[in-house]
Amino acid sequence: MTERVAIVTGAARGIGAAVVSLLAAEGWRVVAVDICADLPGVGYPLGTKQQLNALARRWPGSVLDVVADVRNLDALKEAVDLAEREFGGLDAAVAAAAVMAGGRPLWETTDTEWDALFDNGVRGVANLARACVPALLRRPEPRSGRFVALASAAGHRGLWHLAGYNAAKHAVVGLIRGLATDLRGTGITATAVSPGSTRTAMLDASAALYDLEDVAEFAQHQLIERLLEPEEVAAAVCWLCGENSSAITGTVVHADGGFTA
Questions:
Q1: Residue 190 confidence class, pLDDT cut points 50, 70, 90
Q2: Which residue in 165, 218, 239, 259 is the catalytic one?
Q3: Which of 72, 171, 217, 226 is the most buried (most CB within 10 A)?
Q4: In sequence order, which residues have a C-beta less than 8 Å from that of residue 81 and are 6 or more positions away?
Q5: Is the CA virtual torsion 37, 175, 256, 4 positive or negative?
Q6: What is the mean pLDDT of residues 210-219?
Q7: What is the structure's pLDDT at 2?
Q8: Is residue 44 flagged as an active site residue?
Q9: What is the pLDDT of residue 176?
């Protein structure tokens, strides 16, 4: 069987890095993409080029690292070209790049924070679809292409002083439903995964916004009574990337430990 090929954004660390590692362990070829730079309106450091390089070195021959900004459609198209040139095509795209901003009421949210949330977490998902779907469609029929976006429990439940983040993640869910409808009959599916509180740098940033002493305090909102690990969310994402997930499209998988139950 031909090896399957994926592009993953937000790949330097957190859930994105966990997705890359799990796909590579399952025999996929992966183009791992991250901006590897800090951004205005985001009050914590983002993943680094060193982290992205280390991920690729862990999987020699299976993972290629690409520094690219999801806000830049041409840069994502170049990543797609690399996947097709080096690995022979594209079978799945995972939009994991996003940022956290907020910590104040909506009416006090700055334009810079709003732009960071939507340009990275929504426009970035749309740009990845615009870059990747043509390549997914270039696979011969019968196809089994997959587009998976990371939404959040915040896309389904209001969070205090995070209205902008709520809105951005809700937009991701709507985008996926529309994309899945556009892909009707092509053999390509589009789904979202909504994690709950997961042990990542973004959750650390959320704890700082709330002045929490211990990030584990977020676990009280989840039925499993603990934080999720990135690998647990990645397992749901990677299953959706596989051929056996063909019945799932236009909807959300809640990998949230019961946050939204």
A1: very high
A2: 165
A3: 171
A4: none
A5: negative
A6: 93
A7: 75
A8: no
A9: 98
What residues form DSSP beta bridges with 189?
146
In 3D, which of 25, 47, 15 has the Cα closest to residue 255?
15
CA distance 34 to 30: 13
Which residues make beta-bridge pairs with 8?
32, 94
Q: Looking at the predicted structure, is the pLDDT value of residue 1 above 60?
A: no
Rounded-to-integer distance, Cα 121 and Cα 168, Å: 6
Share the mean pLDDT of the chain: 97
Q: Is the pLDDT of residue 129 over 90?
A: yes
Structure confidence at residue 63 (pLDDT): 98
Any idea how long the chain is? 261
